[in-house]
Request: fold
Amino acid sequence: MSQLENIKGIGPKTLPLLNRLNIYTLEDMVHFYPYRFDVIERSNLRDANEGDKVIVDGIVQKEPLVYFFSKKMNKMTFQIDTGERLLNATIFNRAFFKSNLHVGTKVTIMGKYDKRHGSIVASEIRLGLLPPIPVIEPIYHTTNGISSNQLHKWILSSLDYLEEVNSYVPAYLQERYKLLDKKSSILEVHNPRNKSSLNQALNYLKYEELFLFMMKMNCLKKYRNQEIGIARDIKKEEIDEFISELPFSLTEDQIKCISAIREDMNHSFVMKRLVQGDVGSGKTIVAVAALYMNYKSGYQGAFMAPTEILALQHYQNLLKLYKNTSIKVELLTGKMKVKERNEILKKLATKEIDMLVGTHSLFSEDVVYESLGLVITDEQHRFGVAQRAKLKEKGKMADVLYLSATPIPRTYAITLYGDMDVSSIHQKPMGRKEVITELYKEKDIKLVLEKVEKEIRNHHQIYVIAAQIEESEDDNLENVTKLKEKFERALGKICKVGMLHGKMKALEKDQMMESFQKNDIQILISTTVIEVGIDVLNATMIVIFDSYRFGLSQLHQLRGRVGRGDSQSYCILISDREVERLHVMTQTSDGFKISEEDFRLRGSGDLFGTRQSGDMNFGLADLKRDYSILLRAKEDSMEVLNSEEYQSGKYFPLQEMIEKSIDLD
Ligand code: ADP
Ligand code: MG
Reply:
């Protein structure tokens, strides 16, 4: 039995729900932190204005009335006396709460004040009068079937149940920063008394979170350097010869990257290198060279892309670039027939295939490599710990190369990719012209269409991006379906228009992309499914409708779809709303600067959120806001890791925790 079931209210039904929140033990439970705190202060209705959010105490005057609109939608109304005036309260979808409310019941309600009618539309209702001092209420992210309140109660019971809470910060560090102790911090954060004590608690807990994170990063790096990988003997001349036969000459940064990779591969440790470079900076060729070196030293390679479209593109690229070699490349896709797939798997196991391209399916259970030496993953497709474990099983200690088009500022890179080596490509290939970026209002659509037409007449192709697929979500936004009709009406005589979106079948999507690549279609209307990596040199314009809806990095990624060949390219941003990031887009096309701005505007959450790695989801800390704590934690974790105390096992719960969390086998 799980310890959790000792808590009143937790049973076989709720346990799986808690597991969904990653709560398996009492220890997990008390470490499940609130994501926000609501400060509840009483309002004085006399000073409140029409429409203000207010919190008032009152006594129920009449039995509540409930109206059902449908099975799930209902409305409850009742009257309370605040001592100052009578208020009519309405609250939606709380019919179940009716049995708690009777004449004379004391309640505190929060909601929007309609002064003129003397009423309030309540968003929250609490039984009993809350104490008159400001109450700080922790609010939890939860899952369907468990309310924040319920979770809160369970956390408090778990705190009672647990005699000890493991503290992971060594005592001397706690001393150094005059931090509150762990147990008090946890108690406070789940049951805040006032703002200053809450802040003290948050200081400890954020520090602990970031400290553990950096411990893990540094530890991984240390272990990796001890792991025995493949030592190879790739000669500089071998790769130079390959490079000299490419259809273009490489940039200095590309050459530097390839050279760093060669050194890593020749070394006996396991390579874990990230190549970060702006969209269009030419990361793929670096991957191609790495795969070539891996092949030359006698190993198989795997090239993993985030989507099937991209996998296909990489596959075709490899075929082209390895044309004059005897390298055998294959593509593994999800829609392959069983027989076809089995054929490939058989050849893979007997090393009749040298390189396999595909999505994460490259690491499915049944995919067995004869001698995997290198894994490349494209576009921020980071391996989680679980995937790394699988990898280790398959290839013993294959080298790993990551490609990322979301360059991040150096300081952040050092910390966040603490367990990797990082190469950056700053230069664009020679002869590239900067994409011209312009902002338009919707009423100027005619001007935009004229520009589109001009490009078409120059035999170029165009991407058009919409925020949604069809009308359903928001009428004010353009959608793919409608735009397709509009563009067909306007330009259908001189070109073909196609569309691409996430609801299409994989096969349809691939076919559409292929038609665009072959220039059978000149205008492609799409959602952001084309966001990553697509490379069509003849596309010279991208028009983005409702562009205020997109994040800065996303806009930059989209813009990166054009300007990949030698012709002048354009990015047209259409937006009726003024937002700062659109102006940033017109001012710079440097991905490193853009990501710096993105940090400034949004914080780090979106960049390092779930998209990159589950390892970077912090409960309380925010990498941007708490960056100074992160830097301290980084220094301190190195200090601890290298200390004699740590090595001789004195920091017990810490050591156990770290070792458990980075255990790859
Ligand atoms: P990304 O870094 O966004 O993945 P790609 O690797 O797809 O960029 O490269 C973008 C385009 O530039 C491709 O068509 C590629 O063939 C081309 N390219 C890459 N390196 C060079 C270079 N040194 N000179 C000219 N073209 C290059
Ligand atoms: Mg790419």
Q: What stands out?
A: Residues 518 and 536 are 9 Å apart (CA to CA). The radius of gyration is 29 Å.
